[in-house]
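Hey, can you fold this one?
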Amino acid sequence: MNDFDFLVGTWDVVNRRRTDALDDTSEWEEFPGVSHASRHFEGGANFDEITFPTKGFGGVTLRLFDVEREQWSLYWSSSLTGTLYPPVVGRFTGGRGEFYGDDTHEGKEVRTRFVWSDITERSVRWEQAFSVDGGETWVINWIMEFTRR
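Sure. Predicted structure:
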């Protein structure tokens, strides 16, 4: 239930994002971010806010642990839309968290995958990937490298 305790605190974030989230040959753009995360419900909830100063927007993530199902639901919202996106759901195994959900991107149905990996006290990696074929193939379209302040 305390899987996201590693994220609590303030982080500098290097973002690499594809210019076209569904095209694995599109260019990568790189930009900075700053994340502040907090722990709630004795570790059963986690909240963070990230800002992207050179992009002019930010986002928040709410993570909730379902005690009965023993899995997390992660909810994202961007300041660009002010809406809550459908959750990705999953768990940590062996120090790696994988979370899946269904969404749309530019009018296309996509399967979404978030992966938390390479977790240390000073750094962590997050990546997002989309699939338009039900998870047969994936396009990694956003990578965040976190470094603790």
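The first strand starts at residue 9 and ends at 18. Let me know if you want another pass with a different chain boundary.
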